[in-house]
Write a structure and sequence with these properties.
This is t-SNARE coiled-coil homology domain-containing protein. With 226 residues, the chain is an all-alpha fold. The chain has 5 helices and no strands. Helix 3 packs antiparallel against helix 4.
């Protein structure tokens, strides 16, 4: 249950209902003053049960949404049972005659008020059910909107992260391009150095050959030519 007050009212109603449900059979078997007394007692207890149900409906209005469906179902069942008992009580004394009419005269206004109140309470219960359905729909819409907002935020974060990753990739690509240019320059420098090295080797070889030729000429002139 949703509250201690609702449980108390529930117990009060069950006690009244247990007393009321025995009266139609007793009225059918009784006669005269005893039947009049049973009719008066039934009307009094029926009115008390109606008041208890009204109190339960007041509790229903302020109950948490998670409890309202079960509470509303119980109230509809109780009103149906109470209406059935009232019909059974009327059917239990079909030939009660003038004495029954007298009792009905004394309590007819109260009974009609109870019937009218029962109808109003039933309409109120249906209205509460509709309100509960609207509240549930509103909560569902709010949850959907919250989920949509969270999804939008996640999407925004992902887009920002992708933007950052793109910037990182652009920087990496630029670094790779710079590295490629540096490698190209390095290859050009290495080729130039290689050409210089070959040129230097050729020059060195020519110089060595020239020195050898000069040395041979000197030796020839000094030792062999006389």
């Amino acid at each position: 249950m949703s509250s201690e007050e609702f449980e108390k009212l529930h117990e009060m109603y069950r006690s009244l209902y247990e007393e009321l449900k025995l009266m139609p059979d007793k009225a059918q078997k009784s006669h005269g003053e005893e039947r009049k007394r049973l009719v008066r007692t039934f009307d009094e207890r029926h009115g008390e049960a109606e008041e208890v149900l009204q109190g339960m409906e007041e509790e229903l209005r302020i109950a948490p949404l998670s409890y309202r469906n079960s509470m509303s179902t119980k109230l509809r069942m109780y009103r149906r049972d109470l209406g059935k008992l009232q019909r059974d009580m009327k059917n239990s004394a079909p030939g009660f005659g003038s004495s029954y009419n007298t009792v009905q005269g004394n309590h007819g206004i109260y009974s009609s008020q109870n019937q009218h109140s029962t109808h109003l309470q039933s309409q109120r219960a249906l209205l509460l059910e509709g309100t509960d359905a609207l509240n549930n729909a509103s909560q569902s819409i709010e949850r959907s909107q919250r989920i949509a907002a969270e999804t939008e935020q996640i999407g925004t974060d992902i887009i920002e992260e992708l933007g950052e990753q793109r910037e990182q990739l652009d920087r990496t690509r630029n670094r790779l391009a710079n590295t490629g240019e540096n490698l190209s320059r390095s290859r050009k420098i290495l080729r130039a150095m290689s050409r210089r090295l070959v040129t230097n080797k050729l020059l060195l070889g020519i110089i060595i050959l020239m020195e050898l030729a000069i040395l041979g000429a000197v030796i020839y002139l000094k030792f062999f030519r006389k």
